[in-house]
Amino acid sequence: MPYRYLEEIATADVAFEAWGASLEEMFAAAADALANVMVADLSSITTVHRVPMDLEHEAVDLLLFDFLQELVFLKDARRLLLRVPNPSISRAGEALILHAVAEGEEIDPQRHDLLVDVKAVTLHRFEVVQRDAAWYATVILDI
User: What are 10-41's pLDDT values in tens digits?
Assistant: First the structure.
């Protein structure tokens, strides 16, 4: 599990740190951490729907922010619990471009052990850094 929850950062919200050897691994870990806040068992999310995602930003931290916000939007607008196993990030000039296919299914309280509802990703203490050979993100979710 390339993420951990940070109880000392936020008492009324949920904070986590996600990491990976590449930006793509860190983005996938952050998506799983987000989903795992809402559902206890990630393996209970099966692939019924595939949702293409194409996002662009010049700053890596804001690209991650937009990515996570899009997952929250899809949960709210289409009632989808989604995982993103293989995101791809490339550079085009100054911009970073994320291509991904989010995979998942509609929320089913009979099958999914639901925990809390994530309302939004916050910018409070939001950070993406590269240390040594790995990428790390610190994220606080408004629940």
Answer: 666 899 999 999 999 999 999 999 999 999 99
Tokens representing 47 are 């692939």
Residues in the chain predicted with pLDDT less than 50, given as ranges, are none
β-strands 49-57, 95-106 pairing:
antiparallel
Measure the CA–CA gap between 99 and 52, rounded to whole angstroms: 8
| pTM of the predicted structure, to 2 decimals | 0.92
Point out which residues pair with 20 in neighbouring strands: 135
Write down the pLDDT at residue 29: 98
Name which of 8, 55, 15, 51 is nearest 33 in CA terms. 15
Domains in the chain, start-ordered, CATH in brackets? Answer: 3-142 (3.55.10.10)
Contact by Cβ (8 Å): 46, 80: no
Q: How far apart are CA 30 and CA 39, in angstroms?
A: 14
